[in-house]
């Protein structure tokens, strides 16, 4: 997956997988706006990439998503399975001159995006570069503010062009050198009127998954105890971002001065 929209080495992953005859599907939920080191969208080199348009994503229709693939057969299969297994959608059946007939060729799902929702996405896609530029600007303010700060480390780096980070999530790691816990930073930010999140609680520790937990995952658990996702959305002003960054730094400083 693209953590927060950070571009991964997808060509490396695909080449590793191809040698072993493994297919690659990308979780590109955070990656609307992400470009890889060849300047391409997710889905270009793999078998396909699934993007999310959920409310917390870079462009949104409230719910729904998009699947990109260069594989015609897979595209057809996804289309059919997402609409009850029907081989022809309403546009194909009802447009003037088209046949009414259809077949149900598979046991499918009701996973199709409603046309009204798709219209919302289309209008947002047209604004993607403006929205992305704003995210880039805010992320830059955060990165600059935390450079050389005591123990506050951005969880992902600024990639080299033509790669691009979508900055769907801007997460920091509250490192042990900070002398303060992640949760105390969260509490301190809350006191300044700043809401945060954590991406993600480790899957293997979730109630529904715990029974599958066969071995410890110390690196995952280390990160999950130190991550904080800061607010980042296009309507934020530069001043807002400076205020958040200053609040994070002073939460860390307070603890350093105490110790
Ligand atoms: C990494 C990741 N994958 C998949 C999803 C699921 O996306 P959706 O809610 O559009 O099904 C999310 C949703 O937040 C996500 O963060």
Report the sheet with the most strands, covering strand number, pairing sense and barrel closure. Answer: 3 strands, mixed
Query: What portion of the residues fall into strands of 2 or more residues?
Result: 5-15%
Query: What is the residue-averaged pLDDT?
Result: 94
Radius of gyration, rounded?
22 Å
CATH architecture classification name of the largest domain: Alpha-Beta Complex
User: What is the number of helices?
Assistant: 8
Taken from the alpha-carbon principal axes, the silhouette is globular
Residue ranges: pLDDT <50 for 5 or more in a row? Answer: none
Give the bound compounds: pyridoxal-5'-phosphate
What would a concise description of this structure say?
The chain has about 260 residues and is an alpha+beta fold. Helix content is about 35%, strand content about 10%.
